[in-house]
């Protein structure tokens, strides 16, 4: 095996050979910054901005007529975007819709599948993003189920990852829903969705997933894997901007279920404007739309999906894996004070890397002040996300070099007494 070359010149050579190097020209990263926070908020993209400006112009020129006369009509935004998102997550077009926010979608889908299940327990894990648990506890309470009994939390053996066997051990015949992330927000572990779905189905439970940290950077096969439902956001790797619309998937086998949180935008479109007193859900995933589609939060996604389709989700994944592998190798080579908390196997790794250090909060702030944009997750993680859309190998090299300089100069000690931010 060739010796790893940790030099800046080698990083530049890697960029010159990368098939996605030119993609970054469609994005605008903050001036003079190395932007490694795309798993929290993707950067401004020309395609997204153009799509938003087009919607604003339609508002200016057409007013209310834009609901039906705009190109595309505002009225159909959720379904049209859902058709295109289906290719990103491996679903049939009717199984996806752009709607609501991630947490709202957790509420409506977990609630719906709890109502449809024989069991009363929801299996989650202790390393989940907390808001998922907030929503699930609320849905359990709404059904008269004590969350202390109904929420089954799978524990981590190492504080970084969740083993599939541990999930299997927590699922029984009283399980209603197994709800897991596709990627752990702190460590970056990528879950085996197919295996977890099989575990749930063996006990007649439903399998749902939060794809917030994988959609747009990891290919999925939700329909083929028989996943029952999934939710995601579009402001991270999909780069649709702050406050961008969320998305959801429901397997076609469940189109007969009544949404737990019905709203007029999910009504059967043929009779929606008859404003009947009883809710008649649409015959597919679009039934889970609740309120009127937020046009200006949804429009940028049309532009960003142009980029995803032009690059190809499989090629984006290939480049992401290569960037995170390179990042891990640089940490091993140049940062002996730090450890990598992310699984090293590509098939178990999402799009970001957790660099661990006891003073990670101070390190993150010192890096940001020096133009390396990362984020901090307690207690000891500097999250570094080399988004394949606009990050290159030299950017990764500069991020590690910045961390090396901060550690050499003990610059992070100047931040030790400041309150810790997790932005």
Tell me about this structure:
The protein folds into two domains: 8-32 and 312-411, Aspartate Aminotransferase, domain 1 (Alpha-Beta Complex), CATH 3.90.1150.10; 50-310, Aspartate Aminotransferase, domain 2, CATH 3.40.640. Strands 4-10-9-8-7-5-6 form a seven-stranded mixed sheet, sandwiched between helices. It has helices at residues 8-17, 46-62, 66-69, 77-89, 102-116, 130-142, 147-150, 164-170, 193-202, 295-311, 313-334, 360-369, 393-408, and strands spanning 27-28, 34-35, 44-45, 96-98, 121-125, 151-154, 175-181, 206-210, 229-232, 247-250, 339-340, 353-356, 372-373, 375-377, 381-384. The protein is globular. It is of the alpha/beta class. The protein has 13 helices and 15 strands.
Helicity level, as a percent range? 25-40%
Number of helices: 13
What is the CATH C-level name of the largest domain? Alpha Beta
CATH fold-level name of the largest domain: Aspartate Aminotransferase, domain 2
Mean pLDDT: 95
Q: Specify the biggest β-sheet.
A: 7 strands, mixed
What string gives the helices and strands in order?
HEEEHHHEHEHHEHEHEEEHHEEHEEEH
Number of domains: 2
Radius of gyration: 22 Å
DSSP strand content? 5-15%
Secondary structure class reads alpha/beta
Strand order of the largest sheet: 4-10-9-8-7-5-6
Overall spatial form: globular
> For the record, what is the CATH homologous superfamily label of the largest domain?
Type I PLP-dependent aspartate aminotransferase-like (Major domain)
Q: What's the architecture of the largest domain, going by CATH?
A: 3-Layer(aba) Sandwich
Number of strands: 15
Low-confidence stretches: none
N- to C-terminal separation? Answer: 39 Å
């Amino acid at each position: 095996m060739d010796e790893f070359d940790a030099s800046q010149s080698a990083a530049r050579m890697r960029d010159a050979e990368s098939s996605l190097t030119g993609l970054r020209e469609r994005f605008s990263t903050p001036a003079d910054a190395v932007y490694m926070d795309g798993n929290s908020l993707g950067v401004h993209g020309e395609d997204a901005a153009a799509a938003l400006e087009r919607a604003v112009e339609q508002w200016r020129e057409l007013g209310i007529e834009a609901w039906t006369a705009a190109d595309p009509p505002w009225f159909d935004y959720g379904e049209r975007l859902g058709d295109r998102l289906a290719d990103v997550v491996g679903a049939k077009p009717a199984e996806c819709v752009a709607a609501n926010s991630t947490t709202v979608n957790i509420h409506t889908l977990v609630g719906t599948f709890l109502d449809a299940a024989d069991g009363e327990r929801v299996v989650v894990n202790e390393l989940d993003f907390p808001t998922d648990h907030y929503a699930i506890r609320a849905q359990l309470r709404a059904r008269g189920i004590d969350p202390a009994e109904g929420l089954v939390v799978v524990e981590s053996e190492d504080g970084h990852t969740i083993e599939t066997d541990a999930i299997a051990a927590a699922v029984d015949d009283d399980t209603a829903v197994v709800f897991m992330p596709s990627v752990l927000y702190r460590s970056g572990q990528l879950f085996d969705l197919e295996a977890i779905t099989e575990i749930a189905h063996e006990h007649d439970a439903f399998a749902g997933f939060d794809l917030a940290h994988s959609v747009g950077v990891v290919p999925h096969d939700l329909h083929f894997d028989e996943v029952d439902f999934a939710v995601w956001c579009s402001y991270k790797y999909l780069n649709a901007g702050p406050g961008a619309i969320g998305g959801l998937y429901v397997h076609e086998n469940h189109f007969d279920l009544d949404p737990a949180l019905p709203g007029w935008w999910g009504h059967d479109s043929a009779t929606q404007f008859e404003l009947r007193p009883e809710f008649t859900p649409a015959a597919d995933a679009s039934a889970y739309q609740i309120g009127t589609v937020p046009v200006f939060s949804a429009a940028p996604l049309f532009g960003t999906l142009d980029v995803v389709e032009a690059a190809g989700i499989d090629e984006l994944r290939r480049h992401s894996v290569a960037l995170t592998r390179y990042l891990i190798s640089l940490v091993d080579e140049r940062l002996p004070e730090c450890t990598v908390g992310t699984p090293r196997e590509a098939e178990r790794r999402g799009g970001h890397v957790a660099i661990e250090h006891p003073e990670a909060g101070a390190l993150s702030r010192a890096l940001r002040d020096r133009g390396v944009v990362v984020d901090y997750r307690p207690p000891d993680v500097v999250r570094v996300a080399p988004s394949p859309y606009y990050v290159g190998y030299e950017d990764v090299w500069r991020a590690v070099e910045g961390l090396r300089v901060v550690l050499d100069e003990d610059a992070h000690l100047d931040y030790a007494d400041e309150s810790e931010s997790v932005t």
